[in-house]
Amino acid sequence: MYSTAQLIKDSKPKIANPPLFGDVKEWYFPDIDCSDQESYEQFSVFSKVEYLKLMSDSPNPSFRTPLPHVMILTRIERLGAWVLDSIQYWGKAWIFLWRILSGIFSPPFRARLLFQQVAQIGFHSTFVVALIGIFTGAVLAVQGEYTLSKFGATAFTGPAVALSLIRELGPVLTALMVIGRSGSAITAELGIMKITEQVDALRSMAVDPMKYLMVPRFLAGVIAMPLLSAIFIAIGIFGGYLVAVGVLGLSSGTFVSQMVSAVGPVDVYSGFIKALVFGVIFGWISCFKGYTCSFGAIGVNKATTQSVVTSSVCILVTDYFLTSILTRVFL
Amino acid sequence: MISVRGVSKSFGSQVVLQNLNLEVAAGKTTTIVGPSGAGKSVLLKLIMGILEPDEGEIEVCGYNITSARSEREKNEIRENLGVLFQSAALFDSLTVYENIAFPLVERKGLKKEEAHERVVHLLRALSLTKYVQKLPQEVSIGIRKRVGLARALAFEPKVLLFDEPNTGLDPLVGQEVYDLISESQKSQGFTGVVISHELPEVFQVSDRVVMLLGGRIIMEGTPDEFQQTKRPEVVQFLHGSVEGPIHIQ
Q1: pLDDT at B12 > cutoff 90
Q2: Which residue spans of chain B are classified as CATH 3.40.50.300?
Q3: Which DSSP state fits B107?
């Protein structure tokens, strides 16, 4: 319709003082029909932003301070729009989760697709999870031994390593790793399927994309996350054991016996519940971001980034609340 | 076969279709033409039930798809439809064979062995036998369109929708796609709806032509009537002229 640069250029010879917002339309856009309420409101919202840009970019110093009432109004409008958009967006996300959950229990059940996704998300992530697990356990052993030695309690290195991994680091680090490796891949795959009309093609063939695409990926995340977490924990403890016994010279018997006596079923339940919840968050957000991806390469790019960031933040925030709740429940 | 009654559709403040009325006769091919942004693809998605109109209703094969509440109800109506998408929309992870077998296995619930005979028939009919093990990204766009057509025909649909079947094709392959549409229409007797802006080439597969502009039907008639009309918008569109009442958006 017009450009800010053109506005600034046009404004120089015409205006001696900063114009009031109402004057902007009359001066610059007399041809725009704002006779009905809807078009006037659309023009107003758009032109207020342009007006502020015009004022801030103007070569005339007296124009550079926007009028306070316009600035406040624009900010309130933006805040209001942001709040409404956020409510709508998260509403859609919850409805999406509900549709996945209801899709799990209604036929047809596609076991083959589920196994494929479990292999993709779970089995193919095993190596990287094991690798990170062994080094995490090793670091915990070194740090634990150092800290505990200040209290003369190095015998408790085993419990320190095991409890940290089982209750906290195992589920959280596994989830973050799976999000980075598979969450981004799921979002990108679904996003590309959407922009290349493959999702529409499914619907046109009377195949529900929620059941065909989302349910297997979601369920695979829920199944794979606790399993990968268990692998991470087991290999982490093994890594901690190797370092504590082989490098730091702790007694093998002490490491194992103290660990066995300190770790109870409650700790295992706690870690398992966390992994399960993280699996839900992983599947939900990865699928939702892919399914709601906007068009073009930039849309897929944005969706993938947002998927990883949102999932990671949600997992860390949820982790705090889960830890607080589970500690109270199990103690 | 398809009845569109008083359909309007907007996206935000942008009005795409306004009070549209259209009847598509059974066994005939109706082509919807118009410049980009005229609302052709939106109309196609409304017929498929992928989008919902703001007003009005659409009947497909006697079923009102706009009043279908759930995806399950819509899916029952969609079983009468086949669609050839603009980009063919083949599934990247499946081979040519698997793409064609897909609707038979996943929707009709046939076992692979049961679907095999129908898939082989389509592969032969559309000269695709040497591509069976290829992935979509390993074949040309022309072959992909053929596979898309085979997949759409697999269901033996009563209505076949074509979304710009010739976009991105060279004239020879484009002509081949038109020939395939004509041949399959003759052999299967489906009702066709073709979305296109390839004029006058698309007239060869059309029994009726409808021109959309600004979300409204501005002319409806036979291909001959379109060729002979003096309506300035149609003449401008047919000749691809920049000068005229249609403004390029």
Answers
A1: no
A2: 1-80+159-249
A3: I
Q: Quick one: closest CA in A to B78, which residue? A: A206
Q: Does the beta-carbon distance from B89 to A203 stay under 8 Å? A: no
Q: What are phi and psi of B20, to 5 degrees?
A: -85, 135
Burial of B180 (0-12, 13-18, 19+ CB in 10 A): buried
* Cβ contact, residue pair B78, A203, below 8 Å: yes
Q: Give residue B108's pLDDT band: very low, low, confident or very high (50, 70, 90).
A: confident
Cβ <8 Å between A197 and B106: no
Instruction: Tell me the per-residue pLDDT of B204-235, one tens digit each, with 9 for 90 and over.
Output: 888 899 998 888 888 888 988 888 888 888 88
Strands B208-213 and B191-196: unpaired
- Partner B contacted by A1 (CB < 8 A): no
Please state whether the predicted TM-score (pTM) of the whole model is above 0.80.
Answer: no
A52 to A16, A327, B173: CA distances (angstroms): 17, 52, 53
Among candidates B13, B81, B87 on the partner chain, residue whose Cβ is nearest the Cβ of A204: B81
Measured between alpha carbons, how far is B94 from A113 in angstroms, rounded to an integer? Answer: 13
Sort out which chain B residues have CB atoms less than 8 A from A192's CB and list them: 92
Residue numbers in B near A196 (CB within 8 A): 87, 89
Chain A's closest residue to B94, CA to CA, is A198
- List chain A residues with CB under 8 Å of B45: 200
pLDDT above 90 as % of chain A: 55
Q: B92 — contact with chain A (CB < 8 Å)?
A: yes
pLDDT attached to residue B175: 83
* Rounded distance between C-alpha atoms, residue B155 and residue A238, angstroms: 56
Q: How far is CA B191 from the centre of its chain?
A: 10
Once rounded to an integer, what is the mean pLDDT over residues A305-331? 91
* Amino acid making up residue A285: I
B49 Cβ partners below 8 Å, 6+ apart? A203, B65, B66, B68, B74, B77, B78
Domain residue spans in chain A? Answer: 4-79, 111-330
Average pLDDT, chain B: 86
pLDDT of residue B248: 62
Q: Chain A: give the shortest CA distance to residue B106, in Å.
A: 7
Name the fold adopted by B1-80+159-249: Rossmann fold (3.40.50)
Check: CB of residue A267 under 8 Å from CB of residue A167.
yes
Q: Tell whether the model's pLDDT for residue A103 goes beyond 50.
A: yes
Give the mutation candidate from B14, B41, B70, B83 for the A interface (greatest A CB count, under 10 A): B83
Residue B109 to residue A42, Cβ atoms within 8 A: no
Nearest Cβ partner of A203 from B50, B90, B91? Answer: B50
Contact with chain A for residue B146, Cβ under 8 A: no
